[in-house]
Amino acid sequence: MEKKVRQLCPISDPDTTYFLQITWCKDLGMGFDLILSDGQSSWIGKVSEENISREAADMEMKQEKYVEELKKALLFDQEFSDTYRFDISKKEINGESIHFSYEKNLKDVTFRLGSLVLHRVTNSPEVIRELITYCLDCVKELHAKNDHLQKENERLLNNLHDMQEQLQKCVEAKEELETDLYKRFVLVLNEKKTKIRSLQKHLKEVQEMVPETVQASQIQKRFITW
Q1: PANTHER family in the record, alphabetically (predicted)?
Q2: Do the domain assignments include residue 98?
């Protein structure tokens, strides 16, 4: 069984705050029960699945779409507060029954989503006590969720701090490795340069010796010929 309690201020009496409890099983489209209270008196009513089907047909709207509109109107009290409105009027002079309606407002066009007659309950204090108990249970549950989220947030922050430290160590190790590799590269490069210069010097000496050797050989041949 699902349950939702919300506040509302009717169009005809915007200075008065009412508390509306919606109770449904599995899906809102299967019907729901309503309890309305002004803090002193309480009224109850029921919307059946047949009522929902009839309202959807009267509005020429698919039932799934109509149920979505009902959810927005009845369950989401803050997100769509400017779009969905409620009104309450006395059905009988003695006030034993009231007429409760809910509608959707789109700019200059307003159309009724549904309405029903709510009947006054004789045990209003007990109904109000149950409403207060439910609200307190919701607050308690929210506090528990908040505590859990705070602990989870602290855990995630600690993990983030540890990961940042590990990342910093990895960055420092990477920089040290790059510096060491650069030094090794420079050392090898200098050794290669030294070896190349040595080879170039040796090559130059060999190249200088070749003409002298050729010239000496030619002189020797001439001497033998003579």
Answers
A1: DNA REPAIR PROTEIN XRCC4 (PTHR28559)
A2: yes
User: Cβ of 11: how many Cβ atoms within 10 Å?
Assistant: 15
In the chain (226 residues long), the average pLDDT of successive 10-residue segments reads: 87 88 88 91 91 89 90 77 83 73 84 88 90 89 92 93 92 91 90 88 79 59 54
> What is the rounded (10 degree) CA torsion for 58, 62, 68, 73?
-10
Q: Residue 103 — φ and ψ, nearest 5°? A: -140, 165
Q: Where are the alpha helices (DSSP H) in 5-123?
A: 49-58, 63-74
Could you tell me which residues are beta bridge partners of residue 2? 24
* List of E strands, the chain: 2-8, 18-24, 31-37, 42-48, 84-90, 97-106, 109-120
Task: Tell me, yes or no, whether 114 lies in a domain.
Answer: yes
Tell me the pTM.
0.66
